[in-house]
Amino acid sequence: MRRWGWAALMAALCWTGCGEGGSLPTGGQGPSTNQDGTVDLPDIPPGTGETPSDPEQPAPFTSLWPLTVGSTWTYRITDPVKGTFEKRVEVLGEQAVPETSMRAIAVRSTQPHLEELSWQLEVNGVVVRLREEDRKGTTLARVTTWSPATVKSIATERPVGWRYDSDIRELTRLGDGSTEDKDKTYIWRVEAVNETVVTPAGTFTNVLRVKRERGDKENQERTYWLAPGIGKVKEDGERLEELVSYDVKKP
């Protein structure tokens, strides 16, 4: 894995902003954070085979997981236990990651009785998640961190057959003060490109289909459909998510 210091991260990202968030009592830094306050980022090889851009033409916005400030998505979720409801996702912008010396893009997800606030970065065309806080009402119920930061999605197009194996340590701190410490393995694969997907938000073409499997457990798979310039338009596995509406801001 790769360790980024504060100075190196700021030189690479050149971001500014203010932080928000919270933490459960820890008695100090958690084991997923280095002594200097940095979070380990995974070694992800850069994508290959990109088509050179025409300097005379504006570059198209092709991110498969946009992290532009103010972008929003609303999904209809069909859950076998909780029924049908909607989830809204909003990109808040760059913030300090609580309990670290790092900054990342804060993303808020809200659904009935639950709010999730996560901090995400793009590393070589793959989006990773450094931290997530779950709130029920005004109560901070759970804080989850990963070492190295866990893959959330791919952001640039990859060919069919592309694969990335991710071994992580997941630390969860619960509201009652207890902790859970688990080792997990995820396998990401690009299964198809140029698919067409129909959702309540419309029909999307040139969609990538990506599968995430658990390498350490069976029957825990998720499939994502990602549209360039839009992001996730559909997810299936533990539950079904379908895009209902979106407003993606360009950089």
Write out key terms for the chains shown.
3% helix; two-stranded antiparallel ribbon; 55% strand; 1 helix; single chain; mainly beta; YmcC-like fold; 251 residues; twelve-stranded antiparallel barrel
- Content of β-strand: over 45%
Say how many strands there are.
14
The overall pLDDT average reads: 87
Number of helices: 1
Unreliable stretches: 3-19, 25-29, 48-52
Structure description:
The protein is mainly beta. Helices cover 3% and strands 55% of the residues. It has one helix at 6-13, and strands at residues 2-3, 40-41, 72-79, 83-96, 103-111, 114-123, 126-136, 139-154, 163-174, 179-199, 202-214, 221-227, 231-236, 240-247.
Task: Record the SSE blueprint.
Layout: E1 2-3, H1 6-13, E2 40-41, E3 72-79, E4 83-96, E5 103-111, E6 114-123, E7 126-136, E8 139-154, E9 163-174, E10 179-199, E11 202-214, E12 221-227, E13 231-236, E14 240-247
Antiparallel strand pairs: 1-2, 3-4, 3-14, 4-5, 5-6, 6-7, 7-8, 8-9, 9-10, 10-11, 11-12, 12-13, 13-14
